[in-house]
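for the recovery benchmark. C-alpha cells below, seq after
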C-alpha cells in the first residue's frame, strides 16, 4: 500500500540545567526576568537584546508531580519528569483552565525558575519580574500572585501583561508600526481560545470573549477517535503521542465538508493517509517465525502421543468388553444346559430380571465390540497409508533417478525462507495506525465545538459576535488587522481557513487582512522582552512595592499589553442604609426600580471583567433588620 510510514518520536525531556547569573545582571541595575506563565508551557529568561540570553533560558511544561508523603524537595517540575505517562495521575498544575488558582504549585514553579536561572541573592529576588496573566484576570488571583511575588520573593517591581497582546505588540514592531494599533487578536492556547478586540492600542475588555476549547481538547478528542478505531492498541495511544500527532500530522481544511468528501475517494485516501508504526521488534518476530516449525513438530508429537494413548485405552476397553461378553455367554449356556437354579442365581448377581434382558444385553455388547474392532482396524490402515506416503518421496530421492529432485529441494528452501519472512510483515502491519480523516477532525473543534459536545459558538461565530458590538467604521478598523497567535493555531492551513470564513461573514467587497504570528507559540515571551526593553522598570506599566502596599495586591498599572484595571469599590453606609439597619420603615421613590436596574447593569459589567468584590461585616444583623432588608428587596 502506498503512503508514508511514520514513527512516534516519544521525546524524553532532560532536566533543566542550573545556570549562573553574572554580576552584570545586578549592576548597574537589575535585569528584569521575563516569565511567560502558560497553561501548557512555562518560558523564562532575561530581558536582554543580544546573544544567547535573548532567547528563553528555560522552557518546560507547567506540571508538577509529587508522590504522597514525599518531601517538598522531592517534587518533580516540568522537564525533571522524563516521561509523563506513568505519572499522569500524579500531575498537578497551577491552572484552572487558563487562570492561576493553585498558588502552592505556582510557588514551586517560581522556585524552579529562580533556582535554574542562577538567582543567588539571599532571601529575596532583586530582579523585576514581567509575568503574563489571563485576559480579564480576576482581581483575587492577581492579588494572590502579587502577594506571592512581593511577600515571599521580595521582588522590587512587577509588570503584568496578556500573552497574546505581547505577541501583537511584537509583530507590530516587526512590521515597523510604532503607533497604537487597532486590531482583532485571536488566540488559542492549551485550555481556552480568546477573541480580544484592541482599540487604539488598548484592550476593550468589555467585549472580550472566551471559548473553553483549546489544544488539550483536541488531543483528548483525537485520542478517543483512535481508541474507538483501534481498541486493541489502547496502551499505545497515550496523550503525549496524541499531542505529537496533532503538532506534526494534523491540518486545518479550508472547507471541512469538501475535504471530507475528498477522503471518500480510495485514491485520495491511499495518497494522504499517514501510517504510524507503533514500537515493534522485528528481531523478536523473526525468532518467533523461525521457531514455528519446531512448535509445529512438537504439536505433531503431542498429537501422536495422544493418539497412541487413545488407541491403548480402546484396546483395553475392547478386552474388558470381550471378557464381560464371555461371562454373559457362560451364563446363557447354563440355561441351555438346564441348570435353571444356577442360572437364576447368576441373573440376580448380574442385577437382571429375565433371560430376554440377558439376551438383549449380549446382543448390544457384541455389536459394540464389532464396531470398536472395525474402527481400530480402520485407524491402523490409515496410519500405515500415511507412513507410506511420507516415505515415498524419500525413496525416490534416494535413487537419484529424478533430475529435478535437487531443483525441488532448492525451491522448498526458498519457499521456507519466504514463509518465515511473511509473518514479520504481517505482525508489523498489525502494529500500525492509519490516521486519515482524524488529521483534520481533531483541530476542527476550534471552529465546531459541538463535535466534542461543547455548547458554544465556534471561533468565527465568536468573531462575528464581537464585531457586531461595534459600529461599521470600528468593524472595518478591527478586521484590517486580524492577528492569529497561540500554540493551538500552528496547524497548516489555518490562515487560509480564517480568511475564507472572514470572507463569508464580511460585507461584499469589504477589505480585511489576516496575519499569522511569526512564532505563534513563543511570541508572547519575545513580545514581553521587547516591551521590557522599551519600558524599563519604573516607567508606565510597572507596579512597585510601594504601589502594592498603598493600592492593594489587586492593583494593576496599565500598558498597551495589559488588562484594564477596574478597582474594587465599596460604598460607604449612607443615612438610608443606617435607617434600614435600624429597622425603620422606608418608602421607595418612583425611580427606585431604574436605580436598581443601573446598579444591576454596573454589576454585570463588573462581572464581565472578572472583577471580584468582597465585603466585610462589622456585626451580625438582628432578625428584625434581616426581615426589614428582605422586605425592602422583595419590594
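predicted aa per position
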Amino acid at each position: 500500500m502506498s503512503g508514508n510510514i511514520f514513527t512516534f518520536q516519544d521525546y524524553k525531556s532532560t532536566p533543566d540545567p542550573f545556570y549562573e547569573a553574572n554580576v552584570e545582571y545586578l549592576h548597574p541595575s537589575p535585569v528584569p526576568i521575563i516569565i511567560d506563565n502558560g497553561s501548557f508551557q512555562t518560558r523564562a529568561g532575561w530581558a536582554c537584546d543580544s546573544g544567547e540570553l535573548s532567547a528563553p533560558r528555560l522552557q518546560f511544561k507547567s506540571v508538577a508531580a509529587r508522590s504522597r508523603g514525599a518531601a517538598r524537595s522531592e517534587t518533580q517540575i516540568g522537564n525533571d519528569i522524563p516521561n509523563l505517562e506513568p505519572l499522569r495521575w500524579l500531575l498537578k498544575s497551577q491552572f484552572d483552565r487558563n487562570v492561576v488558582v493553585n498558588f502552592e504549585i505556582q510557588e514551586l514553579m517560581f522556585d524552579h525558575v529562580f533556582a535554574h536561572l542562577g538567582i543567588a541573592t539571599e532571601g529575596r529576588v532583586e530582579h523585576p519580574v514581567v509575568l503574563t496573566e489571563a485576559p480579564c484576570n480576576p482581581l483575587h488571583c492577581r492579588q494572590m500572585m502579587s502577594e506571592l511575588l512581593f511577600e515571599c520573593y521580595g521582588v522590587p517591581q512587577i509588570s503584568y501583561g496578556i500573552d497574546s497582546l505581547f505577541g501583537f505588540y511584537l509583530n507590530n514592531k516587526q512590521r515597523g508600526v510604532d503607533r497604537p494599533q487597532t486590531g482583532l487578536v485571536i488566540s488559542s492556547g492549551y485550555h481556552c481560545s480568546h477573541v480580544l478586540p484592541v482599540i487604539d492600542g488598548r484592550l476593550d475588555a468589555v467585549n472580550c470573549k472566551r471559548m473553553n476549547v483549546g489544544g488539550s481538547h483536541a488531543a483528548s478528542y483525537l485520542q478517543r477517535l483512535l481508541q474507538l478505531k483501534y481498541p486493541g492498541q489502547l496502551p499505545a495511544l497515550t496523550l503525549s503521542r496524541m499531542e505529537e500527532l496533532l503538532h506534526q500530522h494534523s491540518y486545518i481544511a479550508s472547507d471541512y465538508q469538501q475535504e471530507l468528501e475528498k477522503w471518500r475517494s480510495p485514491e485520495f485516501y491511499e495518497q494522504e493517509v499517514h501510517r504510524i508504526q507503533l514500537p515493534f521488534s522485528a528481531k523478536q518476530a523473526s525468532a518467533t517465525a523461525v521457531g514455528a516449525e519446531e512448535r509445529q513438530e512438537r504439536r505433531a508429537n503431542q498429537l501422536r502421543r495422544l493418539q497412541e494413548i487413545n488407541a491403548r485405552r480402546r484396546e483395553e476397553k475392547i478386552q474388558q468388553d470381550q471378557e464381560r461378553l464371555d461371562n454373559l455367554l457362560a451364563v446363557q449356556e447354563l440355561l441351555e444346559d438346564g441348570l435353571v437354579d444356577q442360572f437364576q442365581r447368576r441373573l440376580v448377581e448380574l442385577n437382571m430380571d429375565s433371560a430376554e434382558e440377558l439376551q438383549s444385553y449380549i446382543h448390544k455388547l457384541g455389536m459394540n465390540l464389532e464396531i470398536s474392532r472395525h474402527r481400530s482396524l480402520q485407524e491402523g490402515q490409515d496410519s500405515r497409508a500415511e507412513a507410506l506416503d511420507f516415505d515415498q518421496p524419500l525413496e525416490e530421492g534416494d535413487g537419484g533417478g529424478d533430475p529435478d529432485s535437487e531443483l525441488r529441494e532448492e525451491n522448498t528452501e526458498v519457499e521456507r525462507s519466504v514463509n518465515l519472512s511473511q509473518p514479520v510483515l504481517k505482525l508489523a502491519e498489525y502494529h500500525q495506525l492509519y490516521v486519515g480523516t482524524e488529521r483534520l477532525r481533531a483541530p476542527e473543534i476550534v471552529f465546531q465545538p459541538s463535535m466534542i459536545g461543547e455548547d458554544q459558538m465556534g471561533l468565527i461565530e465568536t468573531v462575528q459576535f464581537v464585531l457586531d458590538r461595534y459600529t461599521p467604521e470600528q468593524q472595518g478598523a478591527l478586521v484590517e488587522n486580524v492577528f492569529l497567535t497561540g500554540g493551538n493555531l500552528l496547524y497548516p492551513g489555518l490562515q487560509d481557513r480564517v480568511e475564507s470564513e472572514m470572507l463569508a461573514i464580511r460585507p461584499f467587497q469589504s477589505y480585511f487582512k489576516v496575519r499569522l504570528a511569526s512564532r505563534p507559540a513563543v511570541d508572547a515571551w519575545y513580545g514581553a522582552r521587547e516591551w521590557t526593553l522599551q519600558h524599563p522598570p519604573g516607567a508606565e506599566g510597572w507596579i512597585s512595592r510601594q504601589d502594592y502596599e498603598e493600592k492593594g495586591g489587586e492593583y494593576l498599572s496599565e500598558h498597551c499589553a495589559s488588562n484594564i484595571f477596574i478597582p474594587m469599590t465599596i460604598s460607604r453606609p449612607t443615612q438610608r442604609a443606617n435607617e434600614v439597619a435600624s429597622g425603620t420603615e422606608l418608602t421607595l421613590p418612583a425611580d427606585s426600580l431604574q436605580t436598581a436596574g443601573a446598579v444591576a447593569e454596573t454589576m454585570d459589567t463588573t462581572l464581565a471583567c472578572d472583577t471580584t468584590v468582597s465585603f466585610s461585616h462589622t456585626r451580625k444583623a438582628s432578625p428584625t433588620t434581616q426581615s426589614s432588608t428582605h422586605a425592602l428587596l422583595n419590594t
